[in-house]
Amino acid sequence: MDLCGGHPQKLLSSPKFKTLYLVRHAQGIHNVVLEEKRGIDEIGDVHLSPKLFDAPLSPKGVQQVSEQHKQILESGLLNTIELVITSPLRRAMETAVGIFRGHKDINLSHNFPPIVALELCRERMGLYPCDRRESISTRRICFPEIDFTMVESDEDALWREEERENLEEVSARGFRFLKWLWERPEKEIAVVSHGIFLQQTLCALHEKVSIPLEDSLLTRFANCELRSIRIDESDMEAVTVTTYNCIKNVAPPSPSLHTLE
């Protein structure tokens, strides 16, 4: 759970850039189950278990969050980040709140950036109950620290029971997400998301848009791992001219957060 040595990986030189701090959620209960069943033929059936619906963090995941929160406090990063974007899946929101809020009453001297839920950065969608989210009206009660105004549907209208989002669609969604981030006024943004989404987005930048990235950035994120990258104007111009098919219902909201709760 390191901060990439404290030095963001720079994509291309430009005076206009943003620094993104990318975090995979901490260990969820679905991760525990899948690790226990790894190599067993019935692993597909495990993915389909309704008991894993919108999977929460495991006890180990809660500990990972606590450790990452301490590291971020010690690094001073909490006073640098201006905005936190989180997937609306429970494990990601628990990670975002735990890392970037922690015990707020104890850490009054620190900055606490707003946390905003966004559908664009959720995990690969469809088929698996662990990747289906609870209603926003329910989660709003459990996570008062999070702003949900960017999520348009109360129920999960994007999750498809019979079909799983393909990897090209995930990459397309990743590009839309990067464009949305680029249009935001903040320069330092944290993103709490998921293993497949983060890896597909970075690999697409490298392979489809030919943006040079170190091999260490293209591997699967560990649970609660934080990596940092910089994107600049020329990177985003390259992303803009690259088109993909994307699941129709996943449209980026306005970059304006004037309606923050």
UniProtKB/TrEMBL annotation:
| UniProt feature coiled coil, ranges | none
Which InterPro entries does this entry report, sorted A to Z? His_Pase_superF_clade-1 (IPR013078), His_PPase_superfam (IPR029033), PGM_Phosphatase (IPR050275)
Pfam families reported in the protein's UniProt record:
His_Phos_1
GO MF terms on file?
phosphatase activity
User: Which Gene3D superfamilies does the UniProt record give?
Assistant: Phosphoglycerate mutase-like
At the top level, the lineage of the source is Eukaryota
Q: Which GO terms describe its cellular component?
A: cytoplasm
The record's listing under SMART domains reads: PGAM
Similarity-based family: Belongs to the phosphoglycerate mutase family.
Protein name, entry field: Phosphoglycerate mutase family protein
- Per the UniProt record, the source organism is Brassica oleracea var. oleracea
